[in-house]
Amino acid sequence: MNLAYSKLEENQGYLDREITAVGQGASRREAISCKLWPWIAALATLMTVSILSVTQMKRDIIRPDLGQVISCYYNTPSGDGSAQLQPSGIGPRLCTHINVAFARIVNKSIHLEHSQYDALQQVVKLKQNNPMLKVLLSVGGAGENNGFSEMVINHASRKIFIKSIKKVLKDYSLDGIDLDWEFPVVHDQRELSARERQHFSQLLREIRLEYIREKRDYILSVALAAPQSIVDVAYDVDQINLYVDFANIMTYDFHYYTKFTPFTGFNSPLYARSSEELFLATLNINYTVHMYQSKGLDRNKIVVGIPTYGHSFNLVNPENPSVGSPASGIGALGAGGFVDYPTVCAYTAAHARGATLRWDEQARAPYLYCGAEQGTPVPINLQECRQGTPVPINLQECRQGTPVPINLQECRQGTPVPINLQECRQSTPVPINLQECRQGTPVPINLQNIQKDGSVDMSHAKLHHKQSDM
């Protein structure tokens, strides 16, 4: 595997250079506003790359040099028998740190299912082939904020949690803990959330002091939100900076379809686009890193999140695939609008001629679009239908290899005509010569090939009926 990171240079304490990751034998790909990095394939939903290589605690709490940090979040298999990445399939030298995700907090203590314990043990065994690998247990994740709220509420509750941390680290020979609370203060339990920002900082301090008391060099990391609207209310960044080894900034999910944001956008853009203003101009990696630095997070503790999945959108107008165009909902591709890496690979392979890949120079991000996705009806408008007359057909959407029933409005009074779209190009006029057109008679037309000029080679078309006058 070849990894190349652009050098990050100092510019008044800000990150102004592009972070790039290039995989051997791979090109930039993305499914409908998706940031993809082929060199990590299906391993995880997140890979993070550290900005600098030296980590230390302030106030005389000195931490060892962690070197380059490539922290991979590994979701343990669900155990339902579906095809999922098993621990044995993880390259032991792909990442410097693996965060096994996600443990829950139950009764103020760390809780893992039996299948998760098994997966955790298997991941730790990867260290046999790479002794430098660090394995952490990640606690929390999206939708798991209730356990945190009840646990941080007072010192006694936090002490119970810290005791469970010590036990799991010792019992499973782990290198540290990663806290992924999404998010302090930002949830509906108002009676519990008033002081969560302060309590979270206290929790981090108490975990660090317990590490020091036991003279252990366990790692303490956190996953932090990217939008400033969350950061401003959820974190005391300067306090977090005192106690963590590094922070995994969740610089992804900047754009996805909701009823409040019914338009397309990039999952993880590096920079803002010139058309973006106010709040929208803050939804990018560059702004987020600047913001955290200004709030007191050392740049040598910033780990930038790179998603290995994308978001899909259903366009209101298939002929308007530009960034920011109106969307009517999530796309059919993926699950709930989330498109994982293997699905993207399969989709681009199946739609090599019908899909279009574009690169946005301002955002420094690619995206992919196609007029229609799998399972979507293909409307084709027959402007006219006359024997021996070329008929311009506009392929508004495309599906590969799927029979499409077409209604010849002008010549057949409602009789479906099966046409097999072997290959198609979105919005390309395709002149088709109807060799046979009889009222009430189905005419099978096979589009074997669409030429580069948009014309169709009809040499393989089969005539099933004699020609007759209309």
From TrEMBL:
GO molecular function, one term: chitinase activity
One GO BP annotation of this record: chitin catabolic process
Keyword Ligase listed: no
Entry-linked PROSITE patterns: GH18_1, GH18_2
Highest taxon, organism lineage: Eukaryota
Keywords of the record: Glycosidase, Hydrolase
Gene3D superfamilies from the UniProt entry: 3.10.50.10, Glycosidases
SUPFAM superfamilies on file: (Trans)glycosidases, Chitinase insertion domain
Domain GH18 positions: 68-470
Gene Ontology, cellular component aspect: extracellular region
Similarity annotation: Belongs to the glycosyl hydrolase 18 family.
Entry protein name: Cht11
Source organism: Operophtera brumata (Winter moth)
